[in-house]
Please model this.
Amino acid sequence: MNWWETDFVAVRDNKLWIAGRDAAALAERYGTPLYVYGKDRILERYARLDDALARHSALPARICYAMKANPHRGILRLLQRRGGWIDAVSPCEVETALKAGFPAERILFTGTSVSRADLRAVFAIDGLTVNIDAAEQLDLMSEIKPEFPSKAVRVSVRWNPGIGRGFNPRVVTAGKRSSDGTPIKFGVEPKKVIGVFARARKLGFRPVGLHQHLGSGWVREDFGLVRAAVDRLVRQAREVEKAGFPLEFLDFGGGFGPRYLKNRAVFPVEDYIAYLSDAVAKAGIAVKALAIEPGKYMVGDAGVLLLGVEYVKESYGNIFACVDGGTFNTVPRPAIYLQAHHEIVNACRVEGTAKARITVAGNLCETGDVFGRERSMPLPISGDILAVLCAGAYCRSMASNFNLREIPREILI
Ligand code: LLP
Model:
């Protein structure tokens, strides 16, 4: 069995099968490029988190799907029916979640550089919780509040615990600076947290939660730092409670993902849930619910992008599989983040003796438009179908129309 095989993608007769269907037949039927998402895989991921939370914590848990990872309507409906919650980051995401059937009570709006227009839009929705990203955001909130005089809008505070973690400096969302020097814009620094709770209440809002999000794409070796951040959040929650602000929920954010790489041990999600549940129980705080915000974990490996090989080109000794899609329009991650790796499999001949080092080249006018560089795989031929794995999260949602190319069709099976 290959390291990347799951109950969603598997090899049979040296061909790739997706959710029990022949990948090449799906490509033939729907055309390429094509995103294929698997319902069962997503539900399995959800159930795994749900079970772990039920096993380790006596408190009710909220699995808030970070819909920025993939706002496909069918996926949202699936999670809504399971009783999921939503992490939304723009009014349009909030609107989309409501349309998919999520009640406002199950949506947390976590904006950044929030505008007056954003605040007006979210204050108008009864039951929604607004997560505050900056002490200064309260100035705007106080300006808009008089338009909603009789409303005690539910708010929480996104604090920045001072440490963060992600697979790439561009997706570390806590701490002072990223490892590439970028100042980190998210959250309220510790010394301002109590002040934000106090001012929010004074302005007529109803403070109900404390939140953090450290970054995205953790692997096993990040567990130590993540545990330290869990401890910090729990300690801060105790301070908030002591200052006279009882908390309804503590939100640990997202960050854990599927396995993108062969040589990277996956983050131990169940141990993490055990750890945070235990930390909350031991702290003796009176929170009524725990929340996590998985994006990648929920949908990352439940999606595949199918590409058709147009021709194989040889130039200066490089071999290119030239495919019918471009990274920016389909799976932009490898073009944006140096460290982003997506395994690529020839769906028509998974294994073969004549292996070559193939660069999978897209159809855009940009050198960085390669899905994978010098990958060892059987030499493809024109008409083969290549599958880019782990394409369920931050692929369609970050795709653009660069070069005026269309964004591919999506199917959920
Ligand atoms: N909660 C908040 C407040 C977030 O900002 C994010 C992701 C999540 C939860 C979900 O994180 P996840 O479980 O998916 O790691 N475009 C990047 C990922 C950016 C994630 C931003 N925030 C990528 O393609 O890797």
Q: What stands out?
A: Residues 66, 69, 87, 110, 171, 173, 213, 216-217, 253-255, 257, 293-297, 333, 394 surround LLP (CB under 6 Å). The domain at 9-38+300-412 is CATH 2.40.37.10 (Lyase, Ornithine Decarboxylase; Chain A, domain 1). The longest strand covers residues 303-315.
